[in-house]
Specification:
The complex is a heterotrimer of chains A (258), B (355) and C (297). Chain A is an alpha/beta fold and 258 residues long. In chain A, the strands form 2 sheets. Chain A has a 6-stranded mixed beta sheet with strand order 6-7-8-3-9-10, sandwiched between helices. A 4-stranded antiparallel beta sheet of chain A has the order 2-1-4-5, with helices on one face. In chain A, helix 5 packs across helix 6. The two termini of chain A are 29 Å apart. Chain B has one domain. Chain B has a two-stranded antiparallel sheet. Chain B is globular and about 65 Å long.
């Protein structure tokens, strides 16, 4: 069963073609990398999958359902979550609130029972509270739960954003440059973390990264984008030795990262 | 758990409040009662504006319009038919308003409902605008409502307005409405829906991607906010006993905005304090207009001096307390006990924030 | 409606529109730089005819001298309001600056009541403005011409300053990016002061021309024209000076023609203006000549 099928889509903004003829099929359990120079259209692909943009031509299918043009909140409910290149946390809210909001989309209680604190709602709220604490403990952020999210150091903000995405209970997780700005030690921890959550939460992961250690280290399959066009697809070894890729992106001096 | 203590303290406070209201109603003169009533009405107005602006981050300048709807609905429902026939002199009042006559509580609830319906109709198209554009659009709608009221004498008596409205509003009603408004809006804010609203305020795109339906939540917040503005309008009408379209110009919205910003955006406590400060200071500045002496200098009675002084004070406050008087800090029983702990022991508190 | 009547209304609309344009430019320039809706701008507009009035009546100055002094005084008032009430809040949350603007507005309105009294005053109309010119069957008051001509003169001067001088370059630079401008050695404070001075001066001209056209002065006379001028700026695209001009003309024409074609609904003419605003915001949210700046995701 295909989890995600991006079926030959093109994205045009006025006269500019950001992405052309992009094809991607993902089956459950994969960990796929999306790489390429800046401006290649990688984040645009993410924005299309999560419903922020609607592709100019053709369609996207998630679990065999046509999700083209569906708004981001509905796509989140269907089971796709993402993080952002520039970290979009709710800075003035507490760390705890940032995670708890992730559970809102699955809330069963209606507005009135929430306002008046009816027992059904109180139970749900307590469950959300405990599940959030659990998630925070997994990344050692639980001691900061009452701090403002914006006051956390950079690396922890990234972790928090991932945890918030996990709270929505996704089947497919899109990570946009999660290792940006991290030192080698943090990067190594991140790699372990990504593989761990994939296992613990039964996730399929699509990853944008510039750090080749991460990409070659954990991704089983890699797509390379340049000027909106997919110039290569394959496993890490194939990609590292692909002359097109080397010319456009990796540079001649690349070592074997696998 | 600490939560149960909080509930207890709240109940005790409400009882004390009820006793104070009883005492005030029995013993204070009409002048002071009016100030307190206005203060309480402004609490309702301020807290409801804080919901859509402070918590949801949507810059709405339409509050006066919803107040106007509420004021006119209550007025038309609360006046007896024979009186309405008498005072509509430009054009006779049309049916069915001629026969409608309801108790005060029903009128207030219907005021809120009609304001809420207006908010639903206005909000659906307009809430997709952002920032200052939303502000000017909602201000435009509020002015349109006022201009309509000015031009349909067969329903509103036009620019003449309506006089002789029964003075049903008293401290029980205004404080009661304020308490209910705070209860409901606080209940909303402290729930998952409240988190969703604040997420919209903090980062709309992130909120949407996390699964928050922007349209539903924005409109919900807008509609609830308008409901209470409508109720406040009804209370307002039966306090001042006369209304006309000019009372609902955008200056009214600005006054409520001043209360919200000075109290601290997103702080209900701040709004309560600022609402009363606003009205009390306006009243107590009146003597300035009557003429007074500073030593040998005699300053004669000059109309307008009161508002000049008020505006100056406003400027001073906003220039020195740029984040509002409370700075966004919210009241909580835990916060109060921590405050006293800090004063009475010399230990440094390591907890941050009041929640 | 006869052709003559239509032309008459068109001329009226053009004249009113040029006044709105003068005021709207001040709003749009300040918004372009500070992202602030200067609610006090309507009061600046109101002060100028009062200054002129007192110059003539109390100080017995000749008309042209009072005119110039009134404009200078108004420009100074505008600059002072920026210095006192807006500059300290440059790094504060934007809503605080807005509250400050409301405060300045209340202050100036009521200061006018205190100093000038709330009783309406009759604006003096000098002889050469009392003429009525006739074109075929269309009779136009000379104030109509004055509005259009004087506005055109001052707006041309403005456009020259903005597009052909270093100061203007500085203004345009700041409205794009204040921090970078500072790094490029632009004197931000001085440029902002100049912006306020120019915007206030234009509003002053507008106020005086308004007084000639509607010769009743009262302290609250700036409220509605100020609001409408701001709407004109939004309709044309906030931050764009040509936009403010276009918006002003469109609004002025719409107001006059609305009343001309639908006299029974004349009480709704201000509502019509708000409808235009909302219509534009819903379909072209950045205004007619505005730039569409999208948020990068």
């Amino acid at each position: 069963m295909e989890l995600l099928n991006v079926d030959n889509i093109t994205m045009q903004f006025g006269g500019l073609t950001a992405v052309s003829n992009f094809k991607l099929k993902i089956v459950p359990g994969e960990l796929i990398g999306l790489i390429g120079p800046n401006g290649a259209g990688k984040t645009t692909v993410f924005n299309i999958i999560t419903g922020i943009y609607t592709p100019t031509t053709n369609k996207i299918f998630f679990q065999d359902q046509d999700i083209t043009g569906i708004k981001p909140d509905k796509i989140a409910k269907l089971g796709i979550a993402r993080t952002f290149q520039n970290i979009r946390l709710l800075d003035n809210l507490s760390v705890m609130d940032n995670v708890m909001i992730g559970f809102h989309l699955h809330l069963k209680s209606n507005l009135a029972s929430a306002i008046f604190g009816l027992p059904g709602y109180v139970r749900e709220e307590e469950s959300i509270y405990h599940k959030s604490i659990e998630l925070l403990e997994k990344v050692d952020l639980d001691e900061f739960k009452n701090e403002k999210a914006g006051s956390l150091p950079y690396g922890q903000q990234r972790k928090l954003e991932i945890v918030r995405a996990l709270a929505t209970g996704p089947k497919l997780l899109l990570l946009d440059e999660p290792a940006a700005g991290m030192n080698p030690q943090e990067t190594k921890e991140l790699m372990n973390f990504i593989q761990k959550i994939q296992e613990d939460f039964n996730l399929t992961i699509l990853l944008i990264e510039h750090d080749m250690k991460v990409v070659m280290g954990i991704c089983k399959r890699i797509l390379v984008l340049d000027y909106g066009v997919t110039i290569a697809e394959g496993n890490p070894f194939e990609i590292q030795n692909n002359p097109e890729v080397i010319k456009a992106y990796l540079g001649v001096d690349v070592k074997n990262y696998a | 758990m600490k939560k149960n203590n909080g509930k207890l303290y709240t109940i005790v406070t409400l009882i004390v409040l009820a006793i104070l209201v009883y005492y005030a109603e029995k013993n204070l003169d009409a002048y002071n009662l009016r100030i307190l009533n206005l203060g309480a009405i402004y609490v309702t107005l301020g807290v409801s504006l804080n919901l859509i602006f402070g918590f949801t981050g949507q810059f709405s300048l339409g509050h006066a319009g919803f107040m106007a709807i509420g004021a006119y609905v209550t007025t038309l429902l609360v006046l007896p038919p024979w009186y309405k026939e008498m005072i509509f002199i430009i054009e006779p009042l049309i049916w069915p308003f001629t026969i409608m006559h309801t108790p005060f509580i029903i009128a207030l609830i219907l005021s809120g409902i009609f304001a809420a319906i207006a908010a639903l109709l206005i909000g659906l198209p307009v809430l997709r605008l952002k920032g200052d554009y939303l502000g000017i659009a909602t201000l435009g709608f509020a002015e349109i409502i006022r201009i309509i009221a000015n031009n349909i004498p067969q329903i509103t008596n036009g620019a003449l307005g309506i006089k002789g409205i029964p003075e049903f509003t008293n401290l029980w009603w205004t404080v009661g409405a304020a308490v209910i408004t705070i209860y409901i809006i606080k209940g909303l804010i402290n729930s998952s829906y409240g988190r969703a609203l604040m997420a919209i305020r903090e980062n709309e795109i992130a909120a949407e991607v996390i699964g928050v339906n922007l349209t539903y939540h924005k409109v919900m917040s807008f509609v609830i906010s308008a409901f209470f503005a409508g109720v406040a309008g009804g209370l307002f009408a039966c306090l001042l006993t006369t209304i006309d379209p000019k009372a609902f110009m955008f200056i009214m919205t600005f006054n409520i905005l001043i209360v919200v910003v000075l109290g601290g955006i997103g702080s209900i406590t701040g709004t309560v304090i600022a609402a009363f400060l606003f009205n009390i200071s306006l009243e107590y500045l009146r003597p300035i207009e009557a003429g007074f002496n500073i030593g040998p200098i005699v300053i004669p009675a000059i109309p307008g001096l009161r508002m000049v002084t008020f505006a100056t004070l406003l400027l001073i406050v906003i220039l020195y307390k740029q984040n509002g008087l409370m700075g966004g800090v919210e009241f909580s029983w835990n916060g109060v006990s921590r405050f006293f702990q800090r004063i009475f022991s010399n230990k440094e508190s390591s907890e941050g924030g009041a929640k | 409606m006869s052709l003559n009547l239509f032309l008459q209304n068109l001329a009226n609309g053009l004249s009113l529109g040029s006044l709105y344009a003068l005021i709207a430019i001040g709003y749009t320039m300040v918004y372009g730089i500070l992202r602030l809706i200067n609610f006090a701008h309507g009061e600046i507009f109101m002060l100028a005819p009062y200054f002129l009035f007192y110059g003539l009546l109390i100080f017995h100055l000749p008309w042209w001298a009072s005119f110039i002094i009134a404009i200078i005084l108004t420009a100074v008032t505008g600059m002072m309001s920026e210095r006192i009430a807006y500059r300290p809040l440059r790094n504060a949350p934007r809503i605080s600056a807005l509250i400050s603007a409301i405060g300045v507005s209340y202050f100036l309105q009521n200061l006018a009541i205190v100093i000038f009294s709330g009783i309406p005053k009759s604006f003096f109309r000098p002889k050469f403005f009392k003429n009525i010119y006739q074109f075929g069957n269309v009779r136009l008051q000379s104030t109509l011409f004055a509005s259009v001509v004087v506005s055109a003169v001052f707006i041309s001067a403005l456009l020259y300053i903005v597009y052909r001088t270093k100061t203007g370059l500085a203004m345009r630079s700041i409205s794009t990016d204040i921090e970078t401008s500072r790094l490029m050695a632009v004197n931000v404070d001085k440029t902002i002061s100049v912006t306020f001075a120019i915007g206030s001066a234009l509003a002053a001209v507008g106020g005086i021309l308004w007084g000639l056209r509607f010769p009743q002065l009262f302290p609250l006379m700036g409220m509605m024209p100020g609001l409408k001028a701001f709407i004109a700026a939004v309709v044309g695209g906030v931050g764009s000076i040509p936009g403010a001009m276009l918006g002003g003309l469109i609004l002025g024409m719409s107001e006059i023609l609305f009343v001309a074609f639908l006299p029974a609904l004349s009480g709704y003419r201000d509502a019509f203006i708000f409808f235009i605003l909302i219509f534009i915001l819903l379909f072209k949210p950045d205004g007619l000549l505005g730039k569409n700046v999208q948020e990068k995701v």
